Amino acid sequence: MMNRKLVVLLLCLFSMNYVRAQRSDQQVIADTVLGWQKVYSFKGKKYAPVTKEGRSYTPYQVAIADSFTSWFQKTYTPIGGWGTVTSPAFLTAREAMRPYGVGTDFLIWNVTYSADRKRLEKVSETWTPVYMYTNLLFGINPVWLLNPKEKAYFTMPKDNYAASFGNPAFEKLVKPYGLHEGDRFSKYLVYFYGPYVTVVLIPGNQLPIVAVTKGEFLQQCERALAQAYEKDKKDIIEASPNNLKQQAAFIKHLDEEKHPRRIKWLAAVKEKYRNQLDEPAVLNYFSGPDATAFQNNDPIFIEDATGTTNGGYPLYKYAEGVIEKSRQDKPLWVSIAWRPEKPGGAVKESEIHRAMLRYFNFDYVYAYFFQPEKVKGKPYTVTNGEEQAARLKSRKEYLQVKPAQLAAGQHFKEDFSGTAIGNAPNGWYIPNKSRDAVSVVTNVAGYPGNWLKMAQGTFQVPTPALGLPLPEDFTLAYDLLTTDFSGRQGHTVTLKLLSSDYIFQGKPAENKQSTKVLIRVAPGNEENLAIYPSDANITIKFPDQLNRSYTSYGIAPGTYTNKKRLVHVVLKKKGQQVTVMINGQTVPYLDYNKADKSANMELPKGVRFTYVDWYYDIMDADRGEVYLGNISITNE
Predict the structure, then answer these.
(1) Using CA atoms, how far apart are residues 187 and 362, in angstroms rounded to an integer?
(2) What is the pLDDT of residue 13?
(3) 475 forms bridges with which residues in the sheet?
(4) N or C: which end of the chain has fewer CB within 10 A?
(5) Rounded alpha-carbon distances, angstroms, from residue 445 to 160, 239, 450, 562
């Protein structure tokens, strides 16, 4: 069962959110420390042998799965998801290529509120996994044509089975995920398959697999095609047991057409490669050819394929004795796999990757199995423990917005002083981002106080502190700060104010009756202000029944530039009037042709704004960086 305090916290957050109508349910959940459905303690637990599908596992092997659980639950506390543990999981003999092994599946689920809003429920098919197993290779593809019980043939992606951190191409692959930093991962085998990365802990960093030659492969194909013939014949008889005429016709076609064509193509391939039979076999298909591929004269080896860019799939089998050796207590290797996430990704996935990147103690796990004298009597501890504790603390505080000290007449204040430098701003919502790594609170040399370094996306103000709807009459002020840049203009930052009674997914949304005000501000480039000037405009979108929407333009070209980096924006709402000032200059209600539109910019009566955010446009290196700060809303 979920911790009762957590349920109460989430329901309180939802209630507060719903009433003040800013952040949706899922936005709150995505930023909440949800933890594990159950935190396990295995102290004093006794283990017994287990038999699964004819394979026997010892008490020591059974206990390994629980060790994985203890280690990972100390490493990672689910944020934005709910953690479950599937343990122990045993490798069975259903597929001949799998040695004996045991492991654990950790599944981190998206959650949502139940229909009665009294509890959280997992959202089906939304789990993000972390896998830990002994003697299992992730991402291998069985070659079914060649997979009798006495042998195990499989493919792996090309150049994807050995430590390759010295390879520039490999470093380019891992660099976006941080795996190249230091020797934390380069000391071990690391490979990618699909969206997952696998770290293999094995003495000598050499997998117990052997490259299969073209000669052995073709020899096995001869045997496999004979077996395929017998199976096809059996299938024909079983498909129409009472229709002897139909059986005879299909078997004749198999005998005279299908099987001879397969054997003929196999002979042609053998002849073509008769002087290259000792070379490693690299197949054209990830699961190898089937009988139909030989029947249709398909390319078997990658050398014969045209128009493909996959590089082929090297063929392997396990080294002699691996299956038998895998039955012993001590594992031959340990594989740990998860989905890596680049900076700025979704919260749940980013936090999983951070835990594996920074906190999971691979060295301890390696020593536990392969150098036990190094960790004898020592419990598992995470790496970078102080950072982990601070990280979890900051995540727990993320939704806890501390009330600012407000002066008389002040409705809201945000100077980011309540958020630690390097963290995402407490209570703010930045959708589809990791809430750190990209958009963080920071200091800027030469400019006092804390600033929010903005990245592409929408920045929603923390609802509890904002107190929506805003007063009927108010003044909203904020500062924007740009760095120097070489592009035509710096980044545009847009303030959005929305008046809407329509609620979608727990927050106000635009509809035909809503009123919207947008304030866009962008710095100009002083190299050519005539072409790339400072820019500001006001757009008011009225309810559809009023049938109008207007945009006004204009500030002095040099007001806000890559040299005059700081700009102060003030928006005043008084009754139905909205006035905007940039560095003390009033932005006139002029259209693009300089015609006065002020008479058309009057808001509908009774407008109260129920939603506030800032939007930062597309990221582009030659447009510099931009910071938001010193936000204040006062009553009029």
Answers:
(1) 10
(2) 44
(3) 572, 634
(4) N
(5) 45, 80, 10, 15
- Let me know if 606 is exposed, middle or buried by CB neighbors in 10 A (0-12, 13-18, 19+): exposed
Contacts of residue 304, defined as CB under 8 A and 6 or more positions apart, other chains included, come to 284
Residue 176 has φ and ψ, to the nearest 5°, of -60, -20
Residue 260's SS3 state is helix
Are residues 151 and 96 in contact, defined by beta-carbon separation less than 8 angstroms? Answer: yes
pTM to 2 decimal places = 0.75
- Nearest-Å Rg of the Cα atoms of the chain is 32
Nearest to 514 by CA among 496, 501, 495: 501
User: Encoding tokens for residue 177?
Assistant: 């995920």
The token pair at 574 is 């008084």
For residues 463 and 376, which has the higher predicted lDDT (pLDDT)? 376
Could you tell me the two tokens for 579? 């006035």
Q: If you count DSSP H runs as helices and E runs as strands, how many of each does the chain have, helices first?
A: 13, 31
Give the integer Cα–Cα distance in Å for 92 and 481: 61
Q: Cα separation of 143 and 631, whole Å?
A: 62
User: Nearest to residue 587, comparing CAs of 567, 607, 569, 608?
Assistant: 569
How many CB atoms neighbour CB 437 within 10 A? Answer: 18
**Model confidence over 226-280: pLDDT tens digits?**
999 999 999 999 998 899 999 999 999 999 999 999 999 999 999 999 999 999 9
Residue range 528-573, pLDDT digits in tens: 998 999 999 999 999 988 877 888 888 888 999 999 999 999 999 9
Residue 432 carries which side chain, given as an amino acid letter? Answer: N
Single-letter code of the amino acid located at 66: D
Peptide bond into 280 cis (omega under 30): no
Rounded to whole angstroms, the Cα distance separating 579 from 79 reads: 42
> Under a CB-based contact definition with an 8 Å cutoff, are residues 15 and 462 in contact?
no
Exposure string for 144-178, b = 16+ CB within 10 A, e = fewer: ebbbeeeebbbbbbeebbebbeeeeebeebbeebb
Cβ atoms of 155 and 283 within 8 Å: the answer is yes
Contact 468, 20 (CB under 8 A): yes
Q: Is the peptide bond before 469 cis (omega within 30 degrees of 0)?
A: yes
546-556 in b/e form (b: 16+ CB < 10 A) is: eeeeebbbbbe
What is the rounded CA–CA span in Å between residue 47 and residue 49?
Answer: 7
With a CB cutoff of 8 Å and minimum separation 6, the contacts of 307 are none
Distance of CA 141 to the CA centre of its chain: 25
- 242 phi and psi, to 5 degrees? -105, 5
CB atoms within 10 A of CB 359: 19
Within 213-254, residue ranges assigned H as helices are 214-239, 244-253
Angle, helix 259-272 to helix 214-239, in steps of 10 degrees: 180
Polymer length in residues for the chain:
636
Closest CA to 497 of 569, 555, 438, 546: 569
